[in-house]
DNA sequence: TCAAAAGTGTTCCGCCTACACCCATGA
DNA sequence: TCATGGGTGTAGGCGGAACACTTTTGA
């Protein structure tokens, strides 16, 4: 069988990417969602999405969609899962690859999301969404929890400089669980992956809290010694 | 914009599923691979694969490919990852969803794999494979390790009745690490998810080893109490 | 001076790890 | 009787969890 005839009669499909975009602001985990501009379901709430083009990899398509909807590049993104039911999209048969992204909202604010009718919403504020997008969010949250547990991805959601209180409240949001202040500090500092800065953040207390910075070099050193990040 | 025009001019793509099929035999973890029957790369070693059809979900396509190549149904399968580089398949632009499956080789042997030129090979015996299939296997192994750590999926690779020695050597294969006999027994038995049978397996020792069976009820009970399977 | 968040140590308990000998039995 | 794999218990150490008071300083 020639290559030509082998591939010739195979059905082709629409392939989409949908992005679950997480942010963290005011000690709350948030998601970026938009109102859909096309039929079917025009005006309904939706994740950010787009179709795979011929000249881009699937990962590149996801990065493109993210850039088009937030203006941001070089963002942490990871494949979530493939959603492939025949009737999941009411407009046509579309296979969707879902990605989740972690955004520093402060940096994002410089780029207008208005043109996309995009909004940052807290988890409990999320309205009904089109298709299987709510399931995608549920799956993304689970994956975020699993990944955050053993990989230093939480820092992707924080400003470059952050306080330990901010870091702790981020993990409390991700895990939906209170964390002991002393034990948290002990654990994160014992891994020796943070750089303590001289600066203090005085916006949330009179005393001021030391700022820290995630040190990728130190993290690589941790891994090289066979130890694992865990929080 | 009408629904028709919105979807009309979007490029369509070939979508494949590839299956990384794990088995366990003679205390060795094995993979089922075959020699490709079509060009390009005819005769080269390859994972089991096939193309997504119009009338099936992506998960169903994976199950179909598995059934066509092994004769087995109702097999443990899980999505691995999407492989979407533009040039990953030298014959055409093909997006592949990889799945990994866990097989009880004994049950499989009743179905001839010969017609597919399929072979069970140990990990270190795997030859060069087409496209990005070797990467898929590496990713599948990593995912298998991660999943086996906190989910009782190892039992999918063993006969219904098994000895603790068999179970331990399975995990030694998965983790590529020796496990202490006493500690392993203590841990697995303390979770109370195994049913101890009266029967003994005398094939590997004169004394005979007790057979056990994974008890799904007990496992659900474990989860209900908020505890996690861990091995 | 006081309110509000930052920062700091210790104890206890459970779990993981390391480790060596007897048992049952077919050949 | 002996070789082979099956089966069993304990002691020590480490890490996780629980827990309350002092410090700083702007208002």
TrEMBL record, chains A, B:
InterPro entries, per database record: NUDIX_hydrolase-like_dom_sf, NUDIX_hydrolase_dom, WH-like_DNA-bd_sf, WH_DNA-bd_sf, WHD_NrtR
Start and end residues of each Nudix hydrolase domain: 11-143
Top-rank taxon, per record: Bacteria
PANTHER family with a match to the protein in the record: ADP-RIBOSE PYROPHOSPHATASE (PTHR43736), SLR1690 PROTEIN (PTHR43736:SF4)
Protein name: NUDIX domain-containing protein
Species in which this protein is naturally found: Chitinophaga rhizophila
Source species taxonomy: Bacteria, Pseudomonadati, Bacteroidota, Chitinophagia, Chitinophagales
């Amino acid at each position: 069988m020639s290559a030509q005839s082998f591939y010739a009669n195979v059905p082709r499909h629409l392939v989409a990417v949908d992005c679950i975009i997480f942010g963290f602001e005011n000690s709350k985990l948030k998601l970026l969602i938009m109102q859909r501009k096309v039929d079917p379901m025009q005006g309904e709430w939706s994740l950010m999405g787009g179709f795979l083009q011929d000249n881009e990899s699937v990962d590149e398509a996801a990065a493109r969609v993210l850039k088009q909807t937030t203006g941001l590049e070089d963002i942490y993104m990871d494949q979530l899962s493939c959603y492939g039911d025949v009737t999941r999209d009411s407009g046509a048969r579309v296979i969707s690859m879902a990605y989740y992204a972690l955004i520093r909202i402060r940096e994002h604010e410089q780029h207008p999301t208005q043109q996309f009718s995009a909004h940052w919403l807290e988890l409990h504020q999320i309205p009904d969404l089109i298709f299987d997008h709510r399931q995608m969010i549920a799956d993304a949250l689970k994956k975020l929890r699993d990944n955050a547990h053993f990989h230093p991805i939480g820092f992707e959601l924080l400003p470059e400089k952050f306080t330990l209180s901010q870091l702790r409240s981020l993990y409390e949001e991700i895990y939906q669980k209170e964390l002991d202040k002393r034990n948290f500090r002990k654990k994160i500092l014992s891994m020796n992956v943070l750089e303590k800065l001289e600066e203090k953040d005085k916006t949330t207390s009179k005393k001021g809290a030391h700022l820290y910075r995630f040190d990728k070099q130190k993290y690589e050193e941790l891994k090289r010694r066979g130890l694992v990040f865990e929080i």
